[in-house]
Design brief:
By secondary structure, the chain is mainly alpha-helical. The protein has a domain at about 50-165: Families 57/38 glycoside transferase, middle domain (immunoglobulin/albumin-binding domain-like), CATH 1.20.1430.10. The protein is about 60% helix and about 0% strand. It has eight helices and no strands. It has helices spanning about 5-15, 25-30, 55-75, 80-95, 100-105, 110-135, 140-150, 160-165. Helix 3 (about 55-75) runs antiparallel to helix 4, helix 3 (about 55-75) runs parallel beside helix 6 (about 110-135) and helix 4 (about 80-95) packs across helix 7 (about 140-150). The chain is extended, with a radius of gyration of 21 Å. The model has no long low-confidence stretch (mean pLDDT about 90).
Length: about 160
């Protein structure tokens, strides 16, 4: 196990234990000293170079634009099912644009072309979703395309409708 799965198992075992009890830090007492947080990563040299460098700077500009676009497009949703689905899909596309894998692959020249292709595909989808919501051009063609990309990018369906918007 690793990550969240490991932590979940630890918490279950503590819950079943008669000797251990879960507690929040503030319940245990005041902090003894202030923690110093330092940059660290599994990336090259323990730093973030593979994600933030001259070869990926342009990607960060698009990631920032995509985030602003998502925030703006939410204002145009009217609450209908198709609008709600479009906003949910836009959030999925934003998360896919923000995936660190694309930056990593570009920096390491690992399937660079594939990474850039996928990065731009998700950005293009987000822009089309935004343009359709802004112009209220929600027709049968849009709905068909929306269901198609929903199928292509099929993840986080259980939390989006009421969770993150």
């Amino acid at each position: 196990w690793e990550g969240v799965s490991w932590l979940e198992e630890v918490i279950k075992e503590i819950h079943l234990s008669s000797e251990l009890e879960l507690a929040l830090p503030y319940e245990v007492g005041p902090a003894k000293h202030e923690a110093q947080v330092f940059e660290s990563s599994w990336g090259m040299g323990g730093k973030h170079y593979v994600w933030d460098n001259n070869e990926t700077a342009w990607m960060w500009e698009i990631i920032k634009k995509a985030g602003k676009e998502y925030e703006a497009l939410k204002k145009f949703a009217d609450g209908s099912d198709v609008h709600r689905l479009a906003v949910c899909q836009a959030l999925k596309e934003l998360m896919l644009i923000q995936s660190s894998d694309w930056l990593f692959m570009v920096s390491n020249n690992l399937t660079r072309d594939y990474a850039m292709k996928r990065f731009f595909e998700h950005y293009t989808k987000l822009l089309r979703l935004s343009n359709c919501l802004r112009s209220n051009k929600i027709d049968k063609e849009f709905a068909k395309w929306l269901y198609q990309i929903e199928y292509e990018d099929d993840f986080f369906n259980q939390i989006l409708p009421g969770g993150l918007i």
